[in-house]
């Protein structure tokens, strides 16, 4: 990503949407199948242009956009979150994450010490998130990010939430931080710890002194994750198991209770 990342403050999606809907503008109409997607894209581009996204950015961003059937399938079939805690831990390979996580903690001791000093977050939960999200960066997704986010913004189930993400994504592209054809996960998550676009804007930081923010970078992704947790109320020195002060910050990372508990358990095993 561009080295200007840390300096640019993204205009909130709510403000962008308000600008887009000023006067007699009509919001793009959501849908639950592919039939209305192209019409919706045209409506969204008109709204986004009124909100200040350049026509050049919109043309580049939507040049190769398509209705993302794999994204919809993934969104409708998140069955692992319905498993018991023990079933979820086995399915996600928790024991492997813990054993490899301990090795990575030792191998990157300097990085984790610096992150804990700056953000107050110990290595365990950061490594747990890193391992759970991408297998420590081994697979960061192969889906066309603009298509994924646009499809979910069009889809009626969570249209408002993903419309906010799409506006943030347009600004990331407009500032040169992401390519229009960037690949990520099925719901538009980006990088080694899988940030949604709006969270890239809010919490993305540099972790290796390079001056830029690139969430495909281990150091940047982990620093940004620590910054996210601090931004969600993490208190230095506090516990992070269910019922403890920092568990609420973990809840901010993922809405699924079984996922939250897994991060806390795996993190504790890694921290020892």
TrEMBL record:
<dbReference type="InterPro" id="IPR031304">
    <property type="entry name" value="SLT_2"/>
</dbReference>
<feature type="domain" description="Transglycosylase SLT">
    <location>
        <begin position="37"/>
        <end position="240"/>
    </location>
</feature>
<dbReference type="InterPro" id="IPR043426">
    <property type="entry name" value="MltB-like"/>
</dbReference>
<dbReference type="GO" id="GO:0008933">
    <property type="term" value="F:peptidoglycan lytic transglycosylase activity"/>
</dbReference>
<dbReference type="GO" id="GO:0009253">
    <property type="term" value="P:peptidoglycan catabolic process"/>
</dbReference>
<protein>
    <submittedName>
        <fullName>Lytic murein transglycosylase</fullName>
    </submittedName>
</protein>
<dbReference type="Pfam" id="PF13406">
    <property type="entry name" value="SLT_2"/>
</dbReference>
<feature type="signal peptide">
    <location>
        <begin position="1"/>
        <end position="27"/>
    </location>
</feature>
<keyword id="KW-0732">Signal</keyword>
<dbReference type="InterPro" id="IPR023346">
    <property type="entry name" value="Lysozyme-like_dom_sf"/>
</dbReference>
